Amino acid sequence: MSDMNTKTYELDQEWLELMKQAKEMGLSKEEVSIFLKAAGNNKQAMNRYNIL
């Protein structure tokens, strides 16, 4: 695998794991989407959830 493909694969694996965890926590797709949109628009949201 090229370096770029390896990084993409690793990122995809991280996203898959995050989505699995969200599902296990009982979060809906809509809740995850709302969080990601808020986090993208507001880094304070990320700090609130200890992501940074």
Automatic annotation (TrEMBL):
Any Pfam family matching the protein: SinI
Limits of the Sin domain: 2-40
InterPro entries, sorted: SinR/SinI_dimer_dom, SinR/SinI_dimer_dom_sf
SUPFAM superfamilies, per database record: SinR repressor dimerisation domain-like
Domain of life: Bacteria
Protein name: Anti-repressor SinI family protein
Lineage: Bacteria, Bacillati, Bacillota, Bacilli, Bacillales
